[in-house]
Batch of 3 targets.
Target 1
Amino acid sequence: MDLTPHRRGALGLLAGGAAALSGCGRGEAGVTTLRFWAMGNEGTNVPQLIPEFERLNPGIRVEVQPLPWTAAHEKLLTAYAGDSLPDVGQIGNTWVSELTAIGALSPTPAAAADLLTNQFDAVLDTNRIGDRIMATPWYVDTRLIFYRTDLLAQAGYDAMPPTWAEWKQAMHAVKRVAPDGSYAILMPVNEFEQLLTFGLQTEEPLLAEDATRGNFSNPGFIAALAFYKSLFDEGLAPLASSTQISNTWTEFARGWFSFYFSGPWTIGDFNTRLPEDVQDDWATTGVPGPTGLGASAPGGSSLAVFNSSPHQDAAWRLVRYLSDPQVQVRFQEITGSLPARVSAWDVPALADDPYVQPFAGQLERARAVPKAPEWERIVTEMQIVAERMLRGEYTPETAAAEIDRRADRLLEKRRWMMERGRAV
Amino acid sequence: MTRLKPSTVLLNLGVALISLLVLFPLAWMVSVSLMQTGEAAVFPPPLLPSSPTLEHYRDLFANQGMGRYLWNSVLLASLATILALSFSVPAGYAFAKLRFKGRDRLFQALVGILVIPAQIGTLPLFLLLKQMGLVNTYAGALVPWLASIFGIFLVRQYCLSIPDEMLEAARVDGATEGQIFRRVVLPALQPIIVTLGLFIFLGSWNDFLWPLIILTDQSNYTLPVALAALSREHVQDIEMMMAGAVITVAPVLILFLALQRYYIRGMLAGSVKG
Amino acid sequence: MTMVAQTPPDPVHSERLPAKTPTKRRGGIGRRERAAWGFLAPALIAIAIFFVIPVVSALLLSLTDFDIYALADLANLRFVGLQNYERLLSNPLFWTAMRNTAWFAVLGVPLTIAAALGAAVILNARTVKWRPIWRVMLFAPYVTTLVATAVVWRYLLHTRYGVINWGLDSIGLPAVDWLGQPESSIPAILMFVVWKTFGYNMLIFLAVLQTVPDELYEAARIDGAGRWKQFRHVTLPAIAPTVLLVSIITVAAFFQLFAEPYVMTQGGPAQSTVTVLYFMYEEGFKWWNLGSASAVAFILFLCILAVTLVQLWVSRRLAGSET
């Protein structure tokens, strides 16, 4: 362990120096140290790409700090409040408008405009606030269905049905052939993504009037709530949160559930963690909708350069490097994260991968979520109400009304700021 | 020799059983930390590792930055102890033994605000430290330990037992107040200094809410903050999490066992009287 | 620092003291007063800046809508009077947090006290050998790091692979989804909290029990009282005031649960383990509604203050009845 910088820091403190003791990015003379925060799987694996970047840019060192996804959003806001944001950060696509509203992001400079070509339109659009692109898509994802082909076949289906009603029938059939005590689908009740996906498959937007009022009480969303609830009520999904599920792949292999709502990162997990004997028995497929394959939220992460960073130039170099289609292909190989640059999808590894191909189709059906800075909080409240609905406190109609009520309250400040022209 | 009565044997066995039950979670933590990856996630849960390994400890130090967190914890707890002692010991002494205008009223005021839970000031304190540029610094993490009213209180109680004659004698010999404090008072206060130091060290080591808020950068994390973050990322890796828990708990547990006399005595002095 | 006292207390020396010239003493007092302020200044300044000012500001903050927009630009700050409080009182999650906290206290305090008292009475029996060893063993959980042992307990309570469910299973009881069901999450966390904290109260009880003179037990035995009667007529009256005081202190401690739900359940399932302090943390540091979070802090303060006033009143009554 290299303790020298800390020891120096400690002496500085004892001498009465109250200056920031770490992360001030000054090591050896002439070397810029970039702090880069990344989450989950990406955070764990992106360090493998860094040596190449440092070789190409001798004056720059990169320190990667991995954050857990569940704490990432609050960590970023706390760091913003404490003036200790890193130079570059991975941010969820849905956080762009919030971070823009507080002025934390550097918009894409003219010199980096070329990074915005060769991208998926829907994904790029989620990064656009007003007429500026505030963050650069890094990898794209969206959620679709992972399922056990063998159990579905045993239940008498050779393909995944495309509508909600047929899919539910298939789930019942699968549950009958699966081991006793099993369920059909896993949808952790503390995750909003599943319900949000169903909700996006309906006609109306979820927020109305320039995203200043909730619009969850529209008939489409109520139908989505009802469908979501029925999967639990009919014993097809366990009433469990993600903190309780010890090991997703083991349970999937045991047939405890046969459908799993997840993103591309799970392809890698399943490839490495599922036991040999079920390796040939799973596949991915688009999300069924009310009347045929439906939409989902364009997820994924963008790379943000924070405008508090004194190393703007070096930071954009890192973004440029990580946006390079070649590098994105390598990153896809390591993490399973799907590249944001469309041309990176042409490599045989992706073009011929049967697990990956359904994501391309799903991404084309993707639909952007409303761009209010409060959105993250609104969907969190949405899921809180939804979980209570599952536990019997609300019907779909009263749940929708409750979500609207909470959304309207959260948006009160936004309405005030819009009236004064302080928000977009 | 006296024969042991059956009831005595039963009672002692009962006490031993309860103690073992209470220590079981800690023993289980150590045992699982030595198991192979995935070994603990079966039913019925195994109690002892089939072939013990230090792999998870190695992994934590080599790949998860545990060495750095351990260092942060040691450094912060030590600095907190030194700072808190050097702030509260002189003040406690002054309240007990030096006469000055408004002493009693001031002391009553301090005891009064002892009622206010520290969490209330957390939010404005964060904003204040933001203004001072101390967010995400060791100094920021140490700040709450400077204002230890409890420490002042404890030291004052203990100082009351120092005979006034001792101090007067030194004054007659021409010692300045500073010299008296260093040469007469500090040596007499040695037991309470060890006790208070131990309280502060353990308190700072185990503290969670404040370091969680104020230390935003991973390189500054203390063990509890790091462990909480790791345990969200690695829910499945039971064995590695137990190794992390062992690293976090072991230092304070050993320190406590070594100095438990001081700890227990101070604890009783602080609470029974209050 | 290592120097030992140069002038050992010397009665002869001190007796001569009053004879010294009064002028010198007066000068000494002036010097002493200056010295006293010198000793006090660092601590008082620290307390003023880092404790008193933040607490007062918290009250002011709770009257504004300080949020992430205000953090970015103070022009977005509005004075809203008591609106934060009004909204809290009509916010179901706030009441859920209050209710959960109350449940924690109502169930947890008697459990902790009973465990502590039971352990203290058993340890206090004269025939128990190696008492100091058991005492330290039972107290050890109290000094362990909360976050670390909470992680340990999260696995002990695991529905499928946890040791606790294994224990239930081996005596023929069904497994409980401890941290997964709103009905069992509070009892599950309480098991952990009681395990972690009962040792503290046990030590206090033990200290009081040791002040009960043996003759009292002796006399009771001669009167033919059995174990239970001895406990009821000798032990309980001796320890009752302490039990009362310790209970009240424990209530205040239960108001401050935070790391337990943060580590073990993140407030779930269905917000069943969101405590007041956890709610404050989420309002403040997850969503940056500092105004609303400060209001929560103040309500928490009022609750603790109420408990403390009850404690003061009780201890005054007890002190009064003794004399």
Target 2
Amino acid sequence: MSKIVATAAVKGSKKVVKEAEDFLNKAISEKSESQRVEFPDTAFFFPMAYALLGAEVKTLGDIRPVLQEAKSLLHNEPTESLWLPYLGDALDSGIATLLAEEIIVGLRYLYKQEPQPDCIGFFSDTILRQLGIQLVDGRMPGFAAILGAAPDNKIAVDIVREFQKRQILTFVGSQTNGRSIIDQLKEENVEMGWDNYIVPYGRDTITGIYPLHWAIRGALTFGGHRKGEALKCLKYCKERVFAFGLTLGYIDEVKYATGAGAIDMGFPIIADTDIPEIRPTGICTYEHLVKEFDYKKIVPVCIEVRGVKVKVSEIPIPVAYSAAFEGERVRREQTYIEFGGKYSTAFEYVTTKNSDEITDGKIEVIGPEIDDVKEGSALPIGIYVEVSGRKMQKEFESIVERQVHTFLNEAQGVFHMGQRDMIWVRISKEAKTKGFKIKHLGVILHARIHEIFGTIIDKAQIYIYTKQEDVDKLLPTARESFKFRDERIGAMTDESVDTFYSCTLCQSFAPNHLCIVKPERLGLCGAYNWLDCKASYEINPTGPNQPVKKGEVLDGVRGEWRGINDWVKLKSNGHLERFHGYSIMTLPETSCGCFECIGAIVPEANGFMIVNREYSGMTPLGMTFSTLAGSVGGGNQTPGFMGFGRLYITSKKFIVADGGLKRIVWMPKELKEALGERIKIRAKEEGVPDLLDKIADETIATDTEKLLEFLQKVNHPALTMDPLM
Amino acid sequence: MSDKEKSADQVTNKMMDIACKNDIETAFDRYDAMEPECGFGQLGVCCKNCVMGPCRIDPFGEGPEKGICGANADTIAARNLVRMVAAGAAAHSDHGRDIAHTLLMTSQGKTKGYEIKGKEKLLSLAKELNVKTDSRKIEDIAHDVAEKCFAEFGQQHGELQFTRRAPKKRQEIWRKYKFMPRGVDREIVEIMHRTHIGVDNDYVNILQQGIRASLGDGWGGSMIATDLSDVLFGMPTPIRSVSNLGVLKEDEVNIIVHGHEPTLSDIIVTASQDKELLELAKQKGAKGINLAGICCTANEILMRHGIAVAGNFLQQELAIITGSVDLMLVDVQCIMPALGKLATCYHTKVISTSPKAKFPGVEHIEFSEEDALPIAKRIVKMAIENYPNRKKEIVNIPKDKMDLVAGFTAEYVYHMLGGKYRSTYRPLNDAIISGRLRGAVGIVGCNNPKVKHDWAHLELTKALLKKDVLVVTTGCSALASAKAGLLIPEAAKQYAGKGLQEICEAVGCPPVLHMGSCVDISRILMVLCNVLLEGGLGDDISDLPVAAAAPEWMSEKAVSIGFYAVSSGVYTVLGIPFPILGGKEITDFITDKMENVVGAKFGFEPDPLKAADLIVKHLDKKRAALKLKPVMYGE
């Protein structure tokens, strides 16, 4: 910390703490000590205060001790000469600033001053969980928080595009001389939002707390750290959350103070102005404060300083390519050409051939190209991918095929939806102007298949059919294959294999958690089923998915195997001893934090409720998804509560030890609808064909009283089953 | 007095001139008069442990090669050396015992003027010593902690508590070679037994006991002294002050505290701020009461109260020669008997206070904890009453003084580098690992008229700073650095290499860190343990790129310190060799073979620049062994 920086940080912290104090006094005088304050959709109250102090801020009065702690962290500014050590003091100022900023934005929520126009405001727990898997699998290698405004709009756009290209989630906000990067991007029609990896948080530095107290929740959600474990939470951020700050323009005292707080979390700051650098390391992994005036170099400098591991795939196409473009939409008015949807016949299909039948890199468009049709047209399409490889297996075809969606979507100006024979593809006018052709879809697929599946696929060739008669001719073959695949995976049972796969992908975030993926129980994130894991192991034999021999069956009903237990103990670093694969009530499998759903016991109903992470409303247990999630994540076993993937619900092995599907008494309506058909089939097998109608949802009950009333009315089977407890 | 400059400190030289003009004798003159010093004594081959002799071995091989009992030069040198260890360890440990005693009495409400200021440290010690703290009064906790520490001195078997703070590997070495101290006093007593006529005659075995007793000092007596001082008088944190004789004031009552123990000096600080006494001082024509320290007691009140430092060991007489000291009160250790006679030439009253230390011609006011504050007030009052006797015409206060920042502790490093929430040693470890710092060196010890005053301290310190070595310092060496302006943060720019400069700039600290008095070398041991715990630099102290030096040492305490430093794994370079050179085997052992046993050895090198080279080579060797990168801004 140079003296200038420390001085500014100390001064800035005093300002922010004073602002928080004044605001709090005002709020208490206008409302009352017992006035409730809260951020939307979080189980962590004021997350920074919760993580660092263990404080559960629910009312204005609860803020007082947090403010007191912030005040106790304020120090004198370093003197002109004969100064005393200032690094520790400046870091204290940083923490004081974060606590005070959180108080200010919390109070703003109370006064409905947040979120600011065009801004996200507080980042919810749900977002954190949804992004969890992308954070760990490298699709989202880091976060940038940009504060200020670029010298001109072009530079602003260039910088965020550079981050997008590298799949780095970029938070934009704050301002320099009254101008914010948010408005610069807005003026340039840059699409913002979570799906685009560009998230506007607010137009002042105080709102810079949003990404920071979002990041600290990672330590609580995935790291298994408890409230008040300040050092552990901060070090978790340093070691596992690859975030950094980028300031554009003059750095005022509040920015320095906020920056000091970021540094406390291990997040370095990169500036485009002439500031004193802090290169010695220790609080952050590498340098703490670095300057770079060249905007062409500034993004690579950020990445280097934070040590973000970025995989950039260079694909020879005329548009940018990155996971950050996966969520980008191509709207009707932006579309030059489209395929499928309700406009034409379309399918995609991956099939295995012998090596000598394939010329690697052969990409052919059979039929009209983009230049042959008018703007706004629709063409049929058949994307026919043939692959070969010594380690390629027929059962991996579906895995490769499922990636076509992601591969194509990640190109800027290309939109892809659906799978198999239900796809919908659009290419934007802008992409067309840049020279994008239909053939480039093949170029993308070829490059990405080699990149992702290089260890199992040696050769790939792609035919893209755009004539109706060709598409019609090939479609039945593909459909035949789809049907075959469904039957095969559907027929697989946990008993039919001797090997399960472990998934430790999330250990980068949740060091003591692992999933045991079985044919009848997919990973809790919903992204990895048994076949995926098998393929993943083939692709990367030392990777996160390892085969585990089941070994001796210790309890067939509860799903306990000696081989699995041994592995669980080893891979959880001794944290866990045993798993029951099919039970919530005894030794349930643990969660990292990325679970799609939570199952939780409703003791009064003698059953379980299920809540999916998209549902932010109240459940009969009196807790939201976010609150419940607090007792499930972090690799801890909590009998009665468990995280799992959506599709597990309709598995025949769904909590069989606890009575199976018949135990489900409540689910959000949306989940019920999404799984409706499958539940009906399973319910029939279970002998309760009308089970779906007996499961309550939020339109029926959000408290146990109403729930019980309903269950009794419909005579829900759980009520007469053996007692759960 | 010869023409040659006696000191690297110009204030000292000026005062020597004044002494010379007035025909006042000082240690410098007495040293000149003593030359040539006894060669047998210097070589360590003179034995008077029984009265068959005194015996002495002829170092040239022309006279006796054995004493009357048959002891050879190595045996005699070893016996003499470990007796020095015994005396040094006894001095430090008695200091520690006194602090434990004061804490115990304070916990029982039997003292006047003391309170438990370091509650946090008390609680952490209680935890370490298995003293219950839940819902107990702080006094009761203090009582039990004091008793547990007290017990360390008389303990007869087992291991000293604080040796457990050392890295596991180090503890194993101590156990393997029977170096592990059983009790503080026991090991000192055993030295006296073993060196009695006809007991231990194998020099290696004799040294083994010397090592054991020294560890009882470093990880026992000294460590207790430091820790319990922190409990009683509060944890030091960085603080500004000034140093050198220029801190004495023409128009205020000047009181100098000299010696070692904070029990006395700390209470004098309180007394000197007493309103009634300040009023009395005004009545006597003084603008205030000016307290200043000499030697380690100066370091104690400097660290905790920012009290100015008048000077180090060889300046004690010069302080009186300024004619401005109204009262000098002394306790124990490093107080020259010459003060009594010297004071008669001036109006200065010298007051001895410890029942353990009386001086011919010096008034004795016995200090006791029960009446600490009243006694302290009485002494301050005497100083005030003596102020009008100052002979203005012979007052000669040098103008020069120097700013300083002092008060670093092993505990403070955590805050200094990480603040409250990220408290850590990581940036220090990273600095060493990355090569911004080559390593760290403790420069400690006394003054000795054999060496130009302060010169070797300063030359060595500056040479190491230039090589990106962080210097930590205690005792009279710290005061030498203070006077030369090395303890101010601005010194980094002037003296430090680029890497060290970057660290100082990032942290805001001086390139030389003042860590207290000579018992506080235990703080340096704790820093080393903390660095190892932080990780990345090996698993034993001997793995670290660190070293120690005592370029101007003279006291037996320094011998004990040197022994526990080396036995803890720290390469230690002495500016004056141990008096053992007459014994070839023992010299070879101490400066070479010892490394095979404890992982470190002594070096003897009077030239501070050559000493710096030795140390830099050693640090580079340790860096290479740890597979660290070369220093970042190497030559």
Target 3
Amino acid sequence: MKSSVITFPGSNCDRDMDVALTKFGFKNKMVWHNDQELPKSDLIVLPGGFSYGDYLRCGSMASKSKIMNSVINFAKSGGLVMGICNGFQILVEAGLVPGVLLRNKYLQFICKNVHVKVDNKENTFFKNLDKKVLEFHIAHNEGNYFCTNDQLKEIEDNNQIAIYYCDQNGNTNDQINPNGSIKNIAGIFNKEKNVLGMMPHPERMIDESLSGEDGSIFFKNLLNNIK
Amino acid sequence: MLVNEKIAIEHGLKSDEYKKICKLLKRTPNITELGIFSAMWNEHCSYKSSRIHLKKLHTKGKKVIQGPGENAGVIDIEDGDAIVFKIESHNHPSFIEPYQGAATGVGGIMRDVFTMGARPIANLNSIHFGSTQNKKTKNLLRGVVHGIGGYGNCMGVPTIAGQTSFDRSYNGNILVNAMTLGLVKKDKIFYSKAAGLNKPVIYVGSKTGRDGIHGASMASASFDEKIEEKKPTVQVGDPFTEKLLLEACLELMSGDSIIAIQDMGAAGLTSSSIEMASKGNLGIEINLNKVPCRETKMTPYEIMLSESQERMLIVLESGKEQIAKKIFDKWNLDFAVIGKTTNTKNIELFFDNEQVANIPVNTLVENSPMYDRKWKKSKLPKKNKINKTIFKSLKIKDTLKKILSSPNVCSKEWIWQQYDHTVMGDTIQKPGGDSGVVRVHKTDKAIAATVDSSATYCWAHPLTGGKQVVCETWRNLISVGAKPIAVTNCLNFGSPEKEENMGEFVECVQGISEACKYLDYPVVSGNVSFYNETKDIGIKPTPTIGGVGLIKDYKKMITMDFKEIDNIILVIGKTEGHIDQSLLSRIILNENNGPPPEVNLFNEKNNGLTLLNLIEKNFIKSAHDVSLGGIITAISKMCIKGDKGIQIKKPKFLINEIEYFFAEDQGRYLIEINPKDLKEVSKILDKNSVHYDEIGKIIDKEMIIDQKTKLTIDELKSYNTNWLKSYMV
């Protein structure tokens, strides 16, 4: 299976994502933000980082970069696109997934392990996953997901919420919400479920010496689903 | 503008220093030249009060590739790999403007590391604030933490460990010391020594602005009530540009275009150009009209003294300009050929076709002032005679609660959760342990790093304190299973013009040197920060030591959390009951006098190396060094982290239980072993003459001391974790 990771000038999780994808059997290519064409890919990943410094709204400049036209076309033609952290912010700014990401509720960067509940498994990203709760890792300053009530209704009606922040038993409540996201939303799909944006970093949880191994479960499952 | 002595003094130079300049030049300097002299001759850049003593530091060792004198130190970690590391202070700017001060401190130290060709792989920091009652403390802490995070997180370099302390002596002078480690191939290290004539001198990175002019001079003076006026001397950081600069420099370094490279840190273009020329024994010629500026009408004086961030100066091989330019264009960074190397051994500056400065390089460097300042020796204070009945009146539970929730012991999670500590995917021990540990990417090796200081001990007796802080970092590394290799030091002191402060400096340096030598743990880099004082009140002497060690097989790394019920806990090293200068003494008994705990270097080395041997043999399940707050504080942290309890039986000693549990004797560790290994472990400890006591065994969720005192792990946790969070709300 072929994957491509887009490197923006300020991306800093591009290497980590490359390591993870390669480890679980993807043939991965790194693609420069200023390129026009995407290599033939089964999966495109927008990695975490600070794409263009993010002094403006996070991801807004990146969403207008050269390569993004191709990414948007790829997504619209049904290709699988995944945005992690800053990648999620870019997807939101590019209009590929609904909503916005505000500054964290307590106005602080947060780096820690979190649990997320996988609700919707009728999609390529989470199909056949044999766990309902995964332990992932977050590291962000602007992950507070927000949308209008109308949008929320539409998102819920279309089953577009991918993952929720929860406790280790899968309960979602305000106490375990790390950043103030509406409905504890940690990740969201587009309507067609071929585009996933999420704040947590599965690529930081890929072996037992790191913060955990649930990222491995995610990537292995993803690869099997694409095959 | 005509230069005279008055203007020189306004530049922070002394009257006789100005006379010396005129004598060396055989004329009066012009204003640009005076600015250059003031930048090179201030304390921060010239080390004029400290140089004579820094020579005494122990800096040599088998693993040292580069000692002090370069942008950073370099050590060998085998297989052709090397670690580049250094710690640096950004104290003065951080007090004036905490966010930018701390952020640019982090930016500056990372540049020092990647200037040498290394990719930064870990950041650490040691930050010190005034009393928690002081009205400025909270905002300073918040600003500094945001600044450190703001810069490091954007760069994508994990912040893996640190130290935070609070003490009244920092009320008017906080300390922000930032440390970076980078990874490089041994044969791809870059230095700042220029070589060859007529080689192009290249400016890359951000444009030059008016920010930070006189930053280094500001860092070389004490504060007074006009401190707010100094805000314009604080630089403004742009971590995104630094990230671009990092990637562009590493890309250029993968080829063979660079002869020498130097970042523009303190005193900007001045110190970088002069350092490269001086090391290469060459001259340098710069056309200041070619320097990319972001403000109009900047004068030569301003261009030379600007401390705008994220800039580098490179001496390139002739004919490689286009290759280099292409790379910097790709990363959208400024690139300009601004001059060339010459054989004049002078720095010659041109602006609007006129020569605006012409100074022999050696007058700025070798002939810079060096002072052997007067200093006062400290006596070892007399031991306090603490009435034993006081100890009997103290309850362990109440005392432990106070200690665990005290600002200097409590969990610093509120701080380090704001730092990205897992980016790069190799952090295998996060902040909150004895050392942070990162793997050497795609190898079995890992690097452990720690940063520590013990201002109270140094204040009570500088010589002992200097030794102690080196040993403390050594123990932190051993506790995670790393072989200590070398250190970097950041020496934070008050005014060197006061005999007491100078004495503290001299004796701390001596202590550091003795310990480093004995432990074969050399100093490879560092900096000195004097004049940490406001209105005549100076800080406690605070030498900060950053230690670095190697774990050959990262799977053998040790953490401090208790692992398994029924395992046995031993205390390695002897507990004599030293209470003076301990946390117990200061916050429970309100007693600030007396000597710090004695440091026995033989025991430190012997205990540490024996423990490493036990780790190597896989006997150790968890380990933690005993420091602030004594044995019981250390055990509490192991319980909290492992979410397990312990049944403790105090060994039958002559000292009472309060002394036993809270004493801060040095050279001690707590270790967890499987009961079946006790015999073998005891044999090894005995054979190496290491004192040890069996103190208890791991149980579920409760700390029980001699069947009398009981605490649940949840109680311990709440004491330890709540204080800082509620303070910062």
